[in-house]
UniProtKB/TrEMBL annotation:
Aldehyde dehydrogenase domain ranges (all copies): 26-478
Active site: E255
Similarity-based family: Belongs to the aldehyde dehydrogenase family.
Any Gene Ontology biological process: gamma-aminobutyric acid catabolic process
CDD domains on file: ALDH_F5_SSADH_GabD
NCBIfam families listed in its UniProt record: SSADH
GO molecular function: succinate-semialdehyde dehydrogenase (NAD+) activity
Keywords annotated in UniProt: Oxidoreductase
SUPFAM superfamilies: ALDH-like
Pfam families: Aldedh
Name listed for the protein in its UniProt record: Succinate-semialdehyde dehydrogenase / glutarate-semialdehyde dehydrogenase
Taxonomy of the source species: Bacteria, Pseudomonadati, Pseudomonadota, Gammaproteobacteria, Oceanospirillales
Amino acid sequence: MSDLLKDALNLVQAYLHIKHPRPSTQYSIDNPANVSTILQVPDMDAHDAEHAIAQATQTLPQWRSLTARERSKALRRWHDLVLAHQEELALLLTTEQGKPLAEARGEIAYGASYIEWFAEEAVRAYGDVTPSNTGHTRLLTIKQPIGVVSIITPWNFPNAMLARKLAPALAVGCTCVVKPAEDTPLSALALAALAEQAGIPAGAINIVTTSRPAPIGEVLCTHAQVRKVSFTGSTPIGKHIAHLAASSVKRVSLELGGNAPFIVFDDADIPAAVQGALASKYRNAGQTCVCTNRFYIQEGIYDAFVAEYARQVALLKTGAGTEADTQIGPLINQAACAKVDALVKDAIRQGAKLTYQGAIPDDTQGHFYPVTLLTQVTEAMALTQEEIFGPVSALMTFKEEAEVIQRANATPYGLAAYFYARDIGRIWRVAEALDYGMIGINEGIISNAAIPFGGVKESGLGREGSRHGLDDYLETKFLCMGF
């Protein structure tokens, strides 16, 4: 074990020792690259979740009573600590989640960018003064923190997804209870430890680790003291969370599944489109909610695109994320591998052509799936209707612009879409016609802290990041002042 990983684990263990000195039960966090145990963490239950909510409720008056500038300074110190520990946090992330170390470094920086952004936005939760319709009243609107927030995060970006939710909530004065994904809680624990070092009160962030998420989730979504639930994950679970939260009319933010199309028109820059496709499809081994799920290539350039794309895909190296030249790491667990394999075999049975399939490391015990490229795919195949969440490209052709827009929109999901074209009229028509919350135009990577991240239809509710990112954590209060 490297010294950097030891430092990261020591940070987590010290935090756990203070919070849970004698946990009654624990469970193991395993490295998906070799299935070895990294660390054991408390296996909490519904009672622990209620205790965490009580801690957040108790800390809320203290935290929200600080000035916006004071909270901003605390978040800025947190941001600086995260970047100071970027290498340790990245190695911890790779060890528990599997992504290549270069991607993990990028995720730590990406997560820190949200902390920095909302440290700056903390002082901009502006209200309004509205002209009165009488001479003896003044009409004002103020913004106040919504209260205790439940946060439920996924395993594919265990640092950045949490930072993206915690930062705006804390910036406006909310306190939080966090349930990280059961497979990847270590990054969340490390973030919380650094937040306390930065001066954020101990009860402002409360981490609940568990191998049994359902009972915890029910408490976090129904408890009377919780005023908002923020969830990133699958659409079926998001619907269930919305149903639970509706029982007490809690505000809900949902960032759910996607089925992103990647469209390449015949006037596109093909080399640029290939590079954009590689970035969008194979980042994190295809385990991202905004990654390309369906490729649509216009007939006139199909052969040229496939030839170059297949050549580039064949160069991708699969291996443990800690190896310097790895580009494709393991999937999160064996169930994920089995799901991807079932989708690929189903497509091949229905006529898809296996144009390329790579190799996985010899004698590995890890959860690896080979890089795969399928052509002659149709919309009748399951992998075009649900998220693949693996390193598999599914390519189809199209003839006309109107046709591909209709096919791209023929899904209940609407998170992200991508297309490559150079005709300015086509760019505007297609961008406005695609029914998605985020569109990458001649770009395969679209996320940053300054943009409103989120989808439409069954891909979610609300937006994270940007100046809009504070809104879901604030209540609007109207003051009518007579004199």
